[in-house]
């Protein structure tokens, strides 16, 4: 069974400039040779070292991670495949791309069900090219709240969904006091959420 999506066409899930750069990149064109979910996972394992949308340095093209994320968009992942990504033991980047897939493509009403079991995930990795380390739990909370600095248009949830996710995160905070800083973040975000 396919993941319940937002219903948006795949070329509108990402910023237009990023999408155009992905589709015209030589690396993405090379990905046509990958036909299976497992081949894409192997490529992530071997090639991805950050999950920002753009390459760093002088080659300002789309990142390997986002080319592979787009490849997954074209494959329309199943629920079983998504569970395989989110629980993958070999690389946090495989897991992070799974969460990005959900954040961009899944029906916003289903996000909490996917993300909630991982809010306290302690696996450490560096999502950005700057080498700064965080936990998977912190990373996915940032994805849910639209706080990841390098993501932009299309990444924020609509007001109703944002309030719902923020409320659920705040309730989780009250239940798990180790997430106390998140409560303060939700308090700061509520007045500024998009209308």
Task: Describe the structure using short key phrases.
membrane, PRP38, mRNA splicing, 195 residues, globular
Task: Describe this structure as you would to a colleague.
The chain is mostly helical and 195 residues long. The chain folds into two domains: 10-156, no CATH class; 157-195, no CATH class. The chain is 52% helix and 2% strand. Strands 1-2 form a two-stranded antiparallel sheet. A hairpin with an 8-residue loop joins strand 1 and strand 2 (134-135). Helix 4 packs across helix 6 (92-105) and helix 6 (92-105) runs parallel beside helix 8. The chain is globular. The N and C termini lie far apart (33 Å). The relative contact order is 0.12. Belongs to the PRP38 family. InterPro entries: PRP38.
Give the radius of gyration. Answer: 16 Å
End-to-end CA span: 33 Å
**Sheet having the most strands:** 2 strands, antiparallel
Number of helices: 10
Helix/strand/pairing category: mainly alpha
Helix content: 40-55%
Mass-distribution shape: globular
Mean pLDDT: 83
- Arrangement of strands in the largest sheet: 1-2
Low-confidence stretches: 190-195
Strand residue percentage: under 5%
Give the topology string: H per helix, E per strand: HHHHHHHEEHHH
> Oligomeric form of this entry?
single chain
Number of E strands: 2
Query: How many separate domains?
Result: 2
Family: Belongs to the PRP38 family.
Protein name: Pre-mRNA-splicing factor 38
Function: Required for pre-mRNA splicing.
Keywords: Membrane, mRNA processing, mRNA splicing, Nucleus, Spliceosome, Transmembrane, Transmembrane helix
């Amino acid at each position: 069974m396919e993941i319940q999506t937002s219903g948006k066409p795949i070329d509108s899930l990402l910023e237009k400039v990023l999408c155009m750069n992905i589709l015209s990149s030589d690396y993405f064109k090379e990905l046509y040779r990958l036909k299976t979910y497992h081949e894409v996972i192997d490529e992530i394992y071997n090639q991805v070292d950050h999950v920002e949308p753009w390459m760093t340095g002088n080659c300002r093209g789309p990142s390997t991670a986002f080319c592979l994320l787009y490849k997954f968009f074209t494959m329309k992942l199943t629920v079983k495949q998504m569970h395989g990504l989110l629980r993958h033991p070999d690389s946090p980047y495989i897991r992070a791309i799974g969460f990005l897939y959900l954040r961009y493509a899944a029906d916003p009403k289903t996000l909490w069900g996917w993300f909630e079991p991982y809010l306290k995930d302690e696996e450490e990795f560096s999502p950005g090219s700057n080498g700064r380390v965080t936990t998977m739990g912190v990373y996915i909370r940032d994805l849910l709240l639209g706080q990841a600095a390098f993501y932009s248009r299309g990444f924020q949830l609509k007001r109703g969904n944002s309030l719902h996710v923020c409320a659920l995160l705040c309730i989780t905070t009250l239940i798990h006091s180790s997430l106390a800083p998140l409560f303060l973040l939700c308090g700061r975000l509520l007045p500024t959420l998009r209308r």
